[in-house]
Amino acid sequence: VSGRAIAELPRILTGTHPESVGERAVTLELDIYSGRPNPRWDLTEAETAHLHELLRNLPQSGEAVELKLGYRGFVLIEGSRRITVANGLVRTDEHGHQLTYLDTSGVELYLRQLARDRGYGNLLEIPE
Amino acid sequence: MIVTLELFSGRPNPTWTLSEEDQRQLLDRVRGRTLAPPEASEPRLGYRGLVVLPSEENLAELPHGFRIGGVPPSGDATRTKGGQPLKTEEANEVEQFLLGTARVVVSDDLQQLVVDERQRQASVLPQPPQPIPPEPPEPGACQIVSTAYSPAVWNSPPALYLNNCYNYAMSRMTNTFAQPGLASGQMYTALTCADVGAAASRDGCKSTCNGPSKKVALVIWPGWDFHWYRKSAEGFWAHKPGGTPVRNTDNLNRVINGSTLTPANCDRGPYTAFCGYRYSPKNIVIK
């Protein structure tokens, strides 16, 4: 795993940078629907800060994020920047340039907890 | 047997009677075969073949007259009933034989004229079968007009994130994450086959094919969501799960090939209700 790849991830989600917290809201989207708009809401500053810690120093991965019908994970959105968190992987996507990392720090578990807190627990219990 | 050489338009055609030996040879060649009736000739000028009419002695074996050579219209309906029709080379041989019997009444010049005419006709016949252009469909007739699978245009941001399964199935990139019924003023109110199907119908997506249409399929995650598929020109089905890329595979990553795997039986995850196929016309409006 290259040091460059590890260091790149937090910069993608600039809202999670300690110095820039509060400058721009980070939106969390539960990626589960196909026709209806997905549930999405803005994260608090504290949630964003914690997320920043979880996203730090993830190892890069060559695996592809699987996108299918039903629960696909989460998308963190800040402006045109997006981070997909699904199936044990974290994928950054900026201007068509994608990098994928292994979710070794429990990012998806944390986002699932945020979704439950938001009242979407029943959606997460749907069998695939 | 009386043979008539059909050649002239104004003058009487040459006619002669076959000798007993010639009759026997002719019967040996045509007995039990399906033969063109005498009237089966194209209304054309010049050589039109030979017509043979049986004499009383031949009525038992050859109850009707028949035609050899010329250009009989195609189609079995004009032929007399019997066994196998003469093959081309057999018919040519019978024709040559009968023309040979004409020497008793037909001059050498006229014989040569017939030979030349046969060669000329043979050079233009048989015509290769001409492709029949498809008739334009009647107004209102069903016509499936699938387009080629081209996911790239849908899979590039921001269109990727702003168009959903309904956009893709209806081939309308509105960048609004389109909802059935919204364009026609009344969106669906329940996530059921009936309600989403009715909303799509109000937008113009029909349950029966009528005019030029794309074939689409509606499925429902009962109570939670809807999803659409569209058939591609290649024969397989493609779909766009929400804001994710267009794909032609199901949840088990199998190509929805349109034969063994269709929207009706592929793995659709929680979208367990298959609502049937529908038809999206060219003029559909969604929002």
Describe it for me?
The complex is a heterodimer of chains A (128) and B (287). Chain A has four helices and six strands, in the order αββαββββαα. The radius of gyration of chain A is 14 Å and the shape is globular. Mean pLDDT of chain A is 83; it is low at 1-8 and 14-22. Chain A is of the alpha+beta class and 128 residues long. In chain B, strands 5, 6, 7, 8 and 9 form a five-stranded mixed sheet that branches. The model of chain B is unreliable at 73-80 (pLDDT under 50). Chain B has helices at residues 20-30, 88-101, 108-124, 159-162, 165-170, 193-203, and strands at residues 2-6, 15-17, 49-53, 66-68, 143-144, 212-221, 225-231, 237-239, 273-281. Chain B is an alpha+beta fold. Classes of the chains: A alpha+beta (128), B alpha+beta (287). At the A-B interface, loops of A face strand 7 of B.
Q: Per DSSP, what share of the residues of chain B sits in E-state strands of 2 or more residues?
A: 15-25%
Q: Please provide the ordered H/E string of secondary-structure elements of chain A.
A: HEEHEEEEHH
Structural class of chain B: alpha+beta
Would you tell me the structural class of the helices and strands of chain A? alpha+beta
Total strands of chain B: the figure is 9
Query: How many E-type strands of chain A?
Result: 6
How would you describe the shape of chain A? globular
Number of discrete helical segments of chain A: 4
> Roughly what percent helix of chain A?
25-40%
Termini of chain B, distance in Å? 82 Å
Unreliable stretches of chain B: 73-80
Distance between the termini of chain A: 32 Å
- What oligomeric arrangement do these chains adopt? heterodimer
Biggest sheet of chain A: strands, sense, closure? 6 strands, antiparallel
Using only C-alpha atoms, the radius of gyration of chain B works out to: 34 Å
Portion in beta strands of chain A: 25-35%
CA-atom Rg of chain A in angstroms: 14 Å
Give the averaged pLDDT of chain B, no decimals: 85
Low-confidence stretches of chain A: 1-8, 14-22
